[in-house]
Amino acid sequence: MADRLNLLWLQSGGCGGCSMSLLNAEGPDLYATLDVAGIDLLWHPSLSEASADEFVALLQAIVDGRQRLDILCLEGAVMHGPGGSGRFHMLAGTGRPLRDWLADLSTRARYTVAVGSCAAFGGITAAGGNAAEATGLQYDGARGGALLPAQWTSPGGLPVVNVAGCPVHPGWVTDTLAQLAQGELGPAALDELARPRSYTDHLVHHGCPRNEFYEFKASAEKPSDQGCMMEHLGCLGTQARADCNIRPWNGGGSCLKGGYACINCTAPGFEEPGRAFTETRKIGGIPVGLPSDMPKAWFVALASLAKAATPERLRRNAVADHITVRPSVRRSK
Q1: Architecture of domain 5-200
Q2: By C-alpha distance, which of 51, 55, 40 is closest to 10?
Q3: Could you say which of 68, 95, 241, 325 is the most buried, measured as most Cβ atoms within 10 Å of its Cβ?
């Protein structure tokens, strides 16, 4: 029987939202998922009962090689400030910045996982001028090389696995942990930003409940409208890499299903779009953020044709907050 894996979960510069999302894992729940995958949770700041002294002793035992660590998870950005000292986030009772502990622990862990876009790329914590000098574990935005060098790999042979999202879907985390436990997460299972392809091989656009409006370019004009939000309201679902509308949160929810435009939160730099999140940037009336893999000329031509062919039902429903025109039934003669 294979040995069970030991997992350590730490938090740094962030809101804790990824842990909150993870606790909503269902079918099975978090604890059942870890147990079935053969993973033991050594410590989590919200779930563990260990005292501060016991926690520090655990970290020291890992660094000294007396306690095996298989998976190190970080939630939240690495805090390097002020002035590169790391003292914005000291680990209480140790006199050391958490940043320095992370550098030591990552050399001991078989795999290191960044949970959420803050831990992966800096995320929201790095926004607004980045006074905290926040970065991800291995990426500073889209640039490789942060706390850990760009070419760094763990003792298990992988870079930092970036389970990006703000917050992450619980399934993205549990799938990744299960793949690691089964030895099924190799380099080929990660995309160009070391994100698990189990969810980034999809676009948020896939399964979007507004896809019929998108097909005919029947666009919403204000937040309460039912139409496609790409043209006017900043939606980036046709570019964002995630499966949010294929396996929604809690069995039924997603940003788009809740009436909110996709802000591409799995990508580096999403926190600084250079405009309001609900505003589509355009040049000459054409949205700058076109669908992935589509040449601009094709999009303009297809959009013009689609708009000309838009059924009256979609045209009217797109700018309403409820269905005003029902689908008609074609009667045979």
Answers
A1: 3-Layer(aba) Sandwich (3.40)
A2: 55
A3: 241
